[in-house]
Design goal:
The chain is an alpha/beta fold and about 280 residues long. It is built from twelve helices and ten strands.
Length: about 280
């Protein structure tokens, strides 16, 4: 199944725009797991099992695994998601951005070693840093476009005098992703929830691409404003979907033995808030 079809099916089946981010920090684990990096898989698998019917996607952040030499646990976790949450796609948050044979190897890592359904990429070395991922049939890629960090202005908000119309850099990325770069129809864009006006601008430039939107929850993004700015529908049909990520607010909803149950309750609240925003 194509990534975009899988994402659409999971969104409909779970009535959800919520992506559960998996950023495991052993220092924040519950008491019986705290500080034990060997239990990263156990912690994350419990979160997955508690939220499998509430999410349209899961997004493991590779650095949180690699920093603890836990790449083997990441492989096991993604296999667990595919087995226990069938149909819910996995977006590997890796933000790769190299070219040539190195990009080819990163694509193999993402799609063959980890078996992710999509990956996040930095497009700022140009199309040849993206193209190797598009060769993997059915796999998706989200390009960094307008990120939620304040330093994003340093580059993304700069005007391109050499391009017709002098767009801002993030606007140019959105146009490329919607148009000539989207060779396999599986590209999406990353736009931060802390910039709802920019989400709306990106949606105008890329009306059909899925938008991966981090920053809701602990980072302060407004879920309602995010959905209203980014989601586009035609009647009951979604023509431009959003994948709204929440990580810490769900993962660390409780520091006790009830962490998985608390994560479920946090995910339920966020999913309901996102769903309610669709009709406002």
């Amino acid at each position: 199944m194509l990534f975009t079809d899988q994402l659409q099916a999971a969104t409909q089946a779970n009535a959800s725009l919520l992506c559960v981010g998996l950023d495991p920090d052993p220092a924040r684990f519950p008491a019986d797991l705290r500080g034990n990096a060997a239990r990263i898989y156990d912690f994350c698998a419990a979160i997955v099992d508690a939220t499998a019917d509430l999410a349209c996607a899961f997004k493991p952040q590779i650095a949180y695994f690699a920093a603890h030499r836990a790449e083997d646990q990441l492989e096991r976790l993604i296999a667990h998601i595919h087995r226990n949450a069938p149909g819910v796609p996995v977006i590997l948050d890796a933000k790769r951005g190299d070219i040539g044979s190195t990009a080819e190897q990163y694509a193999i890592e993402s799609f063959e070693r980890y078996n992710a359904d999509a990956v996040t990429l930095s497009p700022f070395m140009g199309f040849d840093s993206v193209e190797p991922y598009l060769r993997h049939h059915g796999k998706g890629a989200f390009l960094l476009c307008r990120t939620s960090n304040p330093g994003g202005d340093d580059l993304q908000a700069q005007r391109l005098a050499s391009v017709e119309g002098q767009p801002l850099l993030y606007e140019h990325v959105a146009r490329l992703a919607q148009g000539p770069w989207n060779l396999n129809g599986q590209l999406g864009l990353v736009v931060g929830a802390t910039y709802p006006n920019e989400i709306e601008r990106v949606r105008a430039l890329a009306p059909t691409l899925p938008l991966l939107i981090p920053g809701v929850g602990a980072q302060g993004g407004d879920a309602t404003a995010t959905v209203r700015a980014g989601l586009r529908t035609d009647g009951d049909a979604v023509t431009g979907t959003v994948v709204v990520n929440s990580s810490r607010a769900i993962l660390y909803a409780s520091a006790g033995a009830d962490f998985a149950a608390a994560a479920r309750q946090a995910a339920l609240r966020t999913r309901a808030e996102l769903h309610a925003a669709r009709s406002r």
